[in-house]
Write a structure and sequence with these properties.
By secondary structure, the chain is mainly alpha-helical. The chain has helices at about 1-15, 15-25, 35-55, 65-75, 80-110, 115-140, 145-160, 165-170, 180-210, 230-255, 280-290, 300-315, 315-320, 330-350; strands spanning about 25-30, 225-230, 290-295, 295. It has a domain at about 30-265: Cytochrome Bc1 Complex, Chain C (Up-down Bundle), CATH 1.20.810.10. The strands form two sheets. A two-stranded antiparallel ribbon has the order 1-2.
């Protein structure tokens, strides 16, 4: 019966091709192999986001009058609702953190080299979408902190040269953060961003499967031992996912995500208002820049600098290799270390000051 079922499915789905691929796919085994797991962890946490997000949508109501109360209802009246919301919030933060770790692991193992330029580019685009998830989802509980943080974020986006006012108006749905903003952020968070992310993840994974795992430039690919992807690497990845789930469950249970107070647009902004941790480095940098540098507004100068940094980082496969296609190890590693230190130090300073 099992053989007949497989034969029937194989004739229609071509399962032999998948089985053949799984049987021959290998993963390099070397001192940096452990870094391969972080991409899988990020994908796993995205799956947790999808599942918990769907559960929260059964009760959440995206209106100014009901958003806060619906989240409070989830946390106080729905069975294990507080845990689902905590898992959703913690997994969002862990997902972004793991995406950063994965990005820097690619940098330091120089896996952006030919023919993986599109893999790097799609990964950077995915990181941008994950940050978009964080920004849009932050407002949905409609509490004081999220309201005023979104207000600040929209104002900063509005300072972008030429297109800034239009971007801010599109984000807010008007001249200020209100009901239209909440509706738009909800649509972004549960419809547009997930569709784009799923499509880009599929493209990214296809590229990874096509080109295989990169071997660091200081190792000869021909001399590196290979491990079968299935079941050897797959089972190891599954154990890593299990560990990530354990950490996630512990954080959600021991440190449940707080709701805070309902947003009041007419109240004064809370003291020490700041964005989520993944925007703190940029936020603190903008605070340090003087109001005017020569004839340029300080905030505008900061945004131009961040834009130039983002573009140059996305173009790493261009300037990170020489004419022979070999990685510029010292230059790229130095740039990576500088960026890691900058993000860590300025995120910390943005949190404590």
């Amino acid at each position: 019966m099992r053989t007949k079922t497989f034969t029937w499915l194989n004739e229609r789905l071509g399962l032999d091709g998948i089985r053949e691929f799984a049987a021959h796919k290998t993963v390099p085994v070397h001192s940096a192999t452990r870094w391969y797991y972080f991409g899988g962890i990020t994908l796993f946490l995205f799956g947790v986001q999808v599942i918990t997000g769907l559960l929260l949508m059964f009760y959440y109501r995206p209106t100014v009058a009901e958003a806060f109360d619906s989240v409070r209802f989830i946390m106080t009246r729905v069975e294990f609702g507080w845990l689902i919301r905590s898992i959703h919030s913690w997994s969002a933060n862990l997902m972004i953190f793991m995406a950063f770790v994965h990005m820097f692991s690619v940098v330091f193992t120089h896996a952006y080299r030919s023919p993986r330029e599109l893999t790097w580019g799609s990964g950077i685009a995915l990181l941008g979408l994950l940050l978009g998830f964080g920004f849009s989802g932050y407002l949905l509980p409609w509490n004081q902190i999220s309201y005023f943080a979104t207000k600040v974020g929209a104002d900063v986006a509005g300072s972008t040269p030429i297109v800034g006012p239009s971007i801010a108006r599109i984000l807010r749905g008007g001249e200020d953060v209100g009901a239209a903003t909440l509706t738009r952020f909800f649509a972004l968070h549960v419809m547009l961003l997930p569709m784009l992310t799923v499509a880009l993840i599929a493209f990214h994974v296809i590229l990874v499967q096509k080109n295989g795992m990169s071997t660091p430039p200081w190792l000869k690919a021909s001399s590196v031992r290979q491990m079968k992807f299935f079941p050897n690497f797959f089972l190891r990845e599954a154990m890593v996912w299990y560990g990530a789930l354990a950490v996630l469950g512990a954080l959600a249970a021991i440190f449940p995500w707080e709701l805070g107070e309902k947003a009041d647009p007419f109240a004064s902004a809370p003291k020490g208002i700041r964005p989520e941790w993944y925007f703190l480095a940029q936020f603190y940098t903008l605070k340090l820049i003087p109001s005017h540098v020569w004839f340029i507004e300080g905030e505008l100068l900061g945004l131009l600098g961040f834009g130039a940094l983002a573009v140059s980082w996305a173009l790493l496969p261009v300037w990170g290799v020489n004419r022979a296609g070999e990685a510029r190890v010292r230059l790229v590693s130095g740039a990576g270390i500088f960026l890691v230190v900058y993000l860590a130090v300025f995120t910390y300073l943005g949190y404590v000051k």
